[in-house]
Design a protein that fits this description.
Layout: E1 4-11, H1 14-26, E2 32-45, E3 48-62, H2 66-76, E4 84-88, H3 94-103
Antiparallel strand pairs: 1-3, 1-4, 2-3
Length: 106
């Protein structure tokens, strides 16, 4: 079984987030996408600190999907350098991890 991962992507607006989420779900590249609205991001960009309202997508998928998933997100995303980061799922409910593996095209 491929390694389960969680992928985080910040988006500037709901429409962009919905486009990314629905595309990846339709392609069965992710099993689930959670929308966390109204986050505030403080970050360095072009030599200064910026503050923006964003929303966060939290996606559950398999590690072997990441290269194509990253490429597709970058094509759909409005940012020149979008946040697309993955973390391993070290432990989880056996049934939930099996569901991810069965749902995602690997």
């Amino acid at each position: 079984m491929a390694e389960p991962i969680v992928v985080f992507v910040t988006c500037s607006n709901r429409e962009e987030a919905e486009t990314i989420a629905s595309t990846l779900l339709e392609k069965r590249m992710v099993a689930c996408v959670n929308f966390i609205p109204a986050i505030e991001s403080w970050y360095w960009w072009e030599g200064k600190v910026n503050r923006d309202s964003e929303l966060l997508l939290v996606m559950k998928t398999q590690a072997d999907q990441f290269p194509l998933l990253d490429s597709l997100i970058r094509q759909m995303h409005s940012y020149s350098v979008p946040e697309v980061i993955a973390l391993p799922i070290i432990q989880g409910s056996e049934k939930y991890l099996e569901w991810i593996a069965q749902t995602v095209n690997s």
